[in-house]
Amino acid sequence: MESTYEKIISWVEDIKERNHSSGAALLILKNNEIVLEHYSGYQSNTINAVPINENSRFNVASARKSYLGLCMAFAIYEGKIHSVEDYASKYFEDIDPEILGKTTIRHMVTHTHGLDENHRGEILREFKFGESWAYRGINIKLMTQLIQKLYGVPFPELLYERVFSPMGLVRTKWETKDNDELVRVIIDPKNNGEDASGSSDDGMESNLFVSTREFASWGSLFLNKGVFNGKQIVPKEVIEIAIRIHTPKDLEKDLPRNGMFWFVQDIPREMSELGNRVPSCSHQILGVTGPTLLVIPKYNVVVAKMYNKRYNYGNDNYLYYLKEFSNIVADNFNK
């Protein structure tokens, strides 16, 4: 079976070696069945480190935004947020209204808000809302606060109750203490991998750890419009809100298009993180430590790829390699 996916496996292993990731994992679902499960390397770059296996849990970094995005979709579906056109100032009365201006929830979830934050925690305006695209952390911080304000609990708690528990996910968790299943994050290959657990499990930190199988299951939930193992876990309409393109229609054509933080393919775009051969309606989420979750509805495929090296591919080639991986996957199923 692996011979069918040899090119994808070779690509994953090549990048692992070139970027000094101590471990890698790759799982492919086709028609909701596992057709490939590949693990290699170790959970850290230290002597006697545990080999990567199906229970190894990787820090998924910014891929956690897809989990927050589902909660945003719930809030819209349930009327706690009236519309993506609501002004952010409606929900953040303590932030200078002149800085927020007419920034909307739409801008917040599509990285077109134009806000940034300095080292003192002061919110600044980088560009006018809706006029460009920038990957910053302030929108994630504010939307995390918003969900807690609307529901009275941190968004991970909302997910545990509504989604993770019904799906039977036990290796998807914001961790505050290191344990034997957690894969260390390699910052500098010359130094030992670091513990990436956090100080809180409220979703504000980048401390979500997920096994490769459960990462793929998360993708399948979106592929199947909220159905998992034959049961409707999440309303179909909530999933559709999460992966529908919300980016302002008049945004410059080469910039990415986003759903609720997901990168969504409509047409190939120069600055998109999806390759030009990836079919429309595909969606992807990524993290700085190397995780990629790619969903291609046209081929009924979910791909979960994991690494544990911070800043993969190199800054100059970052987009090239991300697009190349998704193109290789698409080519494999476009037969």
UniProtKB/TrEMBL annotation:
Presence of keyword Cytoplasm: no
GO terms assigned for molecular function: hydrolase activity
Entry-linked SUPFAM superfamilies: beta-lactamase/transpeptidase-like (SSF56601)
Superkingdom of the organism of origin: Bacteria
This protein's UniProt keywords: Hydrolase
InterPro entries according to UniProt: Beta-lactam-related, Beta-lactam/transpept-like, Diverse_Enzym_Activities
Domain Beta-lactamase-related: 11-319
Protein name per UniProt: Serine hydrolase domain-containing protein
Annotated source species: Virgibacillus siamensis
